[in-house]
Design goal:
The structure is a homodimer. Helix content of chain A is about 65%, strand content about 5%. By secondary structure, chain A is mostly helical. Chain A has a single domain, classed as Arc Repressor Mutant, subunit A (Orthogonal Bundle). A three-stranded antiparallel sheet of chain A has the order 1-3-2. In chain A, β2 and β3 form a beta hairpin. The first copy, chain A, is elongated, with a radius of gyration of 20 Å. Chains A and B meet through α1, α2, α3, α6 and α7 of A and α1, α2, α3, α6 and α7 of B. The structure holds a DNA duplex (30 and 30 nucleotides).
Chain lengths: ~170, ~170
DNA sequence: CCCAATTGCTTCGTTCGCGAACTATCTATA
DNA sequence: TATAGATAGTTCGCGAACGAAGCAATTGGG
């Protein structure tokens, strides 16, 4: 018998005040939303308490990560970046502006298509990232310490199904 | 064999460019974050395209929902509201200000404790909500249509474990 | 060829949320 | 009591993201 979380409590309240309503979808959706919020917050806090290193903000960090993981020459267009990270064009532009000002990326117009720009990590950004990535994933791993490997697998599989569907319908 | 989502793609890229890094926690965390974003967006869009009815914003809607589900007299203190919904004090104050201006809630100082205020739904808010709640949960149900009942249960159970742990450690 | 439609990205104006500082009320201790 | 500290909410200033509009560069149909 596992304990009740905030979502269970809410479900019980709905059952008492609106018994004819089927609130079961929230058992999944509300938990995802709450967890998303908590995880974002936790990662933002980790970045904010870093003394002067890299960015102080999860959105900006996501841009750097996406550029890092494609490998040398650590370059993508804003369009490719957007696909990778679920942000509006305006939002991405703002991130790139900050990152450029701080010296973590450069922007050059593409030689093949004058509308497009090439965003590229600077060597300092690559170095700083490589120094931090291990901590980053260790931090993530710690967030999941309440789940066993099998349970993680089951959750990941279920969420993949849902994500594939929602990305197709909403993204 | 299920298809690859954005998170699988990212994992493969990491494996290619940083094979020594264990990125497996992102299999769960990144999916939760992406899904959280997509679900928030979808619900915000649903509210925004409503013609003049209720609020146009998920945060404000959450406040109304929390007040509705506790049943008559549909009243809570800001402190109780905060526990229910994962928002800063300042953020909640802003929501309450908007809702009060729009006539969906009233605020009165508590008779027992002069520091505390009682937030209460107006009758119009209750009526409007009751007209909309069925649509709301139908919309949520549709978001989950790619998952069978058993799969939803498994995901919900796993996420409950994680949520209980993270709420205790971070909330 | 030409010009309209499309594409890729940025700018602008606004909204929403956060952390820190503040106000007002209540509580506990000497 | 008096007063220091805790507690409940709000205000203030700022940062980040969004939608819509704007600006180039490119593409395609006549």
């Amino acid at each position: 018998m596992s304990a009740s979380d905030a979502v269970d409590t809410a479900s019980q309240e709905w059952a008492a005040s609106c018994p004819r309503l089927d609130v079961s979808p929230s058992e999944v959706l509300a938990r995802i939303q709450r967890l998303g919020h908590l995880i974002d917050e936790a990662q933002n806090r980790r970045l904010r308490r870093r003394p002067g290193m890299l960015v102080s903000n999860l959105g900006d960090f996501d841009v750097l990560r996406a550029l890092r993981r494609v490998g040398p020459p650590y370059a993508l267009t804003p369009g490719r970046l957007r696909q990778a990270m679920l942000v509006s064009g305006a939002g991405l532009s703002g991130r790139l502006k900050r990152l450029e000002q701080e010296g973590w990326i450069t922007r050059t117009t593409s030689p093949e298509d004058g509308r497009s720009t090439i965003v590229r990590l600077t060597p300092e950004a690559v170095a700083d990232l490589d120094r931090d990535l291990e901590n980053h994933f260790a931090f993530e791993s710690d967030l999941l310490r309440s789940l066993g490997a099998d349970e993680r697998g089951r959750i990941a599989d279920g969420l993949r199904t849902l994500l594939l569907d929602l990305e197709a319908r909403l993204g």
